[in-house]
Design a protein that fits this description.
It holds the Pfam family HATPase_c. The chain has 281 residues and is an alpha/beta fold. The chain has 7 helices and 10 strands. Bound molecules: adenosine-5'-triphosphate and magnesium ion (MG).
Length: 281
């Protein structure tokens, strides 16, 4: 029963990918333009692959730049589709270590839009009556997986392209995920790229052009806890990426964090500097 279900899920994914791809190729795919909560979008994408990551004992981590507005304008389904494609690959091609998703903001003005995107500035996702400036967001999915040979990097974004035929045998897939993601990013006036080292891991990144919702629904905003500002914090975590995420997050709340990687290091740190206000272990 389980086999039938997973085979039919896999088939459905392939059919959907082929349908999406032909819609994109024929110029029939249209993006929606509504306010979306980026944190929710990122967390839903992570939820989607969480069980795979748990089964493979891979840590899933993420970091959202606190400068990202609560709500941006765009197509949440298609943005989630890009994130899921990249996260899916990252988990699929990693056997141990971690997958780290980050989203950062680069504020830009229309003049700074790259040449090939000029003329598209008016096609920003929605009317922008309050004049909130365009935002370029950058997403990155970094893994500690098998990596990709340098001479194969460029071809990956073409349709039906996999590094070699052993990939299909071992991991399945049709080689459409990245081609679809590339088209979707370009429709969002962004670009997609990859950096990779064989045996070390890969970082797939992409940008999109959007803007903050003029009148956001703030009911879901994360309000920085004021009473934490100025406090000295000791972070104890064996995972370096986790320490970096906690450091950035707590710094954005005005805290003074310091991180160590083990209980022994924590005791050493405390013997030299006993005046921490609190600690995360
Ligand atoms: N994170 C990654 N690490 C190593 N190789 C990758 C990674 N992401 C993609 N690749 C390589 O790029 C190829 C193309 O990826 P793409 O997502 O387009 O196809 P796929 O995952 O093989 O199949 P599909 O996404 O259609 O199920 C993969 O087959 C793999 O060879
Ligand atoms: Mg894929």
């Amino acid at each position: 029963m389980e086999t039938i279900r997973s085979s039919s899920d896999a088939l459905l994914t392939i059919i959907n990918d082929i349908l999406d791809f032909s819609k994109i190729e024929s110029g029939k795919l249209e993006l929606e333009s509504y306010p979306l909560n980026l944190r929710n979008c990122v967390e839903e994408s992570l939820d989607f692959i969480a069980s795979q990551a748990v089964t493979k004992k891979i840590e899933l981590l993420y970091w959202l730049d606190p400068q990202i507005p609560d709500e941006i304008v765009g197509d949440v389904t298609r943005l989630r589709q890009i994130l899921i494609n990249l996260l899916n690959n990252a988990v699929k091609f990693t056997s141990q270590g971690e997958v780290f998703l980050s989203a950062t903001v680069e504020k830009i003005t229309p003049q700074e839009i790259p040449d090939h995107q000029l003329g598209l500035a008016e096609a920003l996702p929605a009317p922008n009556p309050q004049g909130s400036s365009p935002l370029q967001l950058r997403f990155a999915v970094k893994d500690t997986g098998i990596g990709i040979p340098r001479d194969r990097l460029q071809r990956l974004f073409q349709s039906f392209s996999q590094v070699d035929s052993s990939i299909t045998r071992k991991y399945g897939g049709t080689g459409l995920g990245l081609a679809i993601s590339k088209h979707l990013c370009e429709m969002m006036q962004g670009t997609i790229g990859v950096e990779s080292q064989v045996g070390q891991g890969s970082t797939f990144w992409f940008t999109i052009l959007t803007h903050a919702t003029p009148d956001p629904d703030t009911s879901e905003s994360v309000i920085p806890p004021l009473e934490l500002a100025g406090k000295r914090l000791l972070i104890v975590d064996a995972n370096t990426t986790n320490c970096q995420i906690l450091t950035l997050q707590t710094q954005s709340w005005g805290m003074f964090p310091q991180s160590v990687h083990s209980g022994t290091e924590a005791l050493e740190q405390l013997s030299q500097q006993p005046d921490f206000d609190l600690s995360i272990v």
